[in-house]
Every structure is written in C-alpha cells, then in structure tokens.
Amino acid sequence: MSTLLELRTRARQRADAVGNNFFTDSEINDYINTGLGELHDLLVMKFEDYYISSVSFSLTSGTGEYSFNSIGLDDFYKVIGVDASYGNDIVRVKRFSFPDRNKYAYNDVLYNNRGYAAYEYSIRGDNVVFIPTPNSTDSITIHYVPSFQKLSSDSDSVSSSIALNWEEYAVIVAAMKMLQKEETSTSPLERELNRITVRIENAASNRDAAEPFGITDETTGILPASRWSY
User: Fold this and answer.
1) CA-to-CA distance for 213 and 182, rounded, in angstroms?
2) Euclidean distance between CA atoms 16 and 110, whole angstroms
3) Domains of the chain: which residue ranges?
4) Which of 32, 37, 138, 153 fits 148 for a cystine, CB–CB 3.0-4.6 Å?
C-alpha cells in the first residue's frame, strides 16, 4: 500500500506542482486525507465489509444506556451487528427502532425470544441503548465499521483493504483542490474522478464472488430450532 509521502508526490505530479512551494506538504496532506475519507465512505456504502472492528464490554445490571467512551468505542462509524454471551452461547441482539423506545415501559416482558437476546439495542448519538433495561451482566460484543483514520506521518500507509489502484481517487481529489487554489481549470480531473468513482463502485461490489449473500431468516437469532423457547 502507498504511503502518505508517495500519495503526496503523485498528487503534485498530477497538478504539475512538483517543487511548487505555493502548496505546503501539510496542505496537500489534508487534501489527500479528504480524498481518502471520501473513498472510505464509498466502500462502506457498498456493504461488503471492507472495514470491520469489534469491542466487547459487560452489562451492568439495571443499566440500559452506555456511552461510547465508557465501553472503549472511540472510532465508531456504523454498527454491523451486536451479540450477547449467554453462558457458553452467543446470541444476536436485535435492534429496536426509535418508535419502539417505550414498548417495555409498563408491562412485564413476556415474549418468545426464538434465539435472540431478551433485550434489544439502538445507537443514539454517542451511546448504545438497550431495552428493556437488562438485569444481567452479559458480555456484549459490538461489531462495527470504524471511522476513517487520517494519515499523519509520511510513513503512514493506506489500509491494506483498499486496492492499490483505488488510491488514485485520493490523488485526484488532492490535485483538484490544488488547482482550485490556483484558480486553474479542474475539468480534466473532474472527468477522471467521475470515471474512477464509477469503476470503484462497480469493482467494490460482490467482494466474495464465490459465496454471495442469501436471504437472512429474521425470525430466528440462532439455530437449531430445538433450542428455541416456546
């Protein structure tokens, strides 16, 4: 994968600005990180798990809301799924929608879990919320897409999950911003950026061509059915 220094050199070449002190290295670094951040968004929105992390923490009985800081979640972007450990079993925690936030407020919880945890979660701002308020100390694992992390030093390199030729997206974005500062036409680079964006979006889909996704059975959290409680 290319380093920040290599990307900056390529951006200067693209903008015909090699040795041009009108653009500082720090300035070009910001432009490159802007491009890499946009590329991060493009890949995340393809939902092909180019980026995935997880964090685990234990519930506190009687507590239903946890701040990201309190559970060590400092680079959150989008949640992929939440699991709960019940003894030796791991079960899925379903998400609840905002209109359902009070559905357990006044009644005892009497329903069929069918392999799901006995509570549901939702992401609200910088917090993860569970309803009904758990009365257990289950271990929770949040699988999530991390936020984009800027390259800061010349030796920092692009994530290995990004194809080498996709890095050109960030190079073009940086070169365009350099030309904009010079008040020079960016039309050729805009056409090139549109072309590479389409290519990346098409190529990023179906990352696992051998085993495409099938329909998910949303009526069950874990199998086999013999372990459901009726």
Assistant:
1) 47
2) 69
3) 4-47+159-204, 53-146
4) 37
Assess whether pLDDT exceeds 80 at residue 102.
no
- What one-character DSSP code corresponds to residue 167? G
Residue identified by tokens 């990023």 is 204
- Nearest residue to 115 (alpha-carbon basis) of 214, 20, 222: 222
CA distance 33 to 173: 9
Question: What pLDDT digit, counting tens, does each position of 62-76 carry?
Answer: 999 999 999 999 999
Structure tokens at 73: 């979640």
Neighbours of 68 (CB within 10 A): 17
Query: What phi-psi label fits residue 218: left (phi over 0), alpha (psi between -120 and 50 degrees) or beta?
Result: alpha
The verdict on whether omega for the bond into residue 224 sits within 30 degrees of 0, i.e. cis, is yes
Position 100 scores a pLDDT of 78
> In sequence order, what E strands does 26-178 have?
53-58, 65-67, 76-86, 89-95, 116-124, 127-131, 139-146
Mean pLDDT (whole number) for 148-153: 94
C-beta atoms surrounding 205 within 10 Å: 11
Please give the backbone phi and psi of residue 16, each rounded to the nearest 5 degrees, phi first: 55, 50
Mean pLDDT (the chain) is: 87
In the predicted structure, residue 107 carries a pLDDT above the cut 60? no
Q: CA 220 to CA 114: how far, in whole Å?
A: 6
Least confident residue range of 32-36, 47-51, 138-142, 212-216: 212-216
Distances (CA, A) of 97 to 39, 114, 130, 141: 29, 19, 11, 20
3-state SS class at 221: coil
